[in-house]
Amino acid sequence: MYKIIEDYIDKLMTSSPDMPLWNIESIKQGKKPSWNYIDGCMTTSLIEMYKTTGDKKYLDFVISFVDYYVSEDGSILGYDPKKYSTDDVSESRILFDLYSYTGKEKYKKAIELTHSQILTHPRTKEGNFWHKAIYHDQVWLDGLYMMQVFYTRYQSQYGGKDYSDIINQFENVRRIMFDEEKKLYYHGYDSSRTLFWADKTTGLSKNFWLRSIGWFLVALCDVYSYMEGDEKGRERIASIFKESIDGVLLYQDEESKMFWQVPSFPNREGNYLETSGSSMISYALLKGSRLGILPSSYSEKGLDVFKGIVREKMSEENGDLNLKGICLVAGLGPENNTRRDGSYEYYISEPIVENDAKGVGPFIMAYTEVKKLEK
Question: Which structural domains are found in the chain, ordered by start?
Answer without folding.
Answer: 3-374 (1.50.10.10)
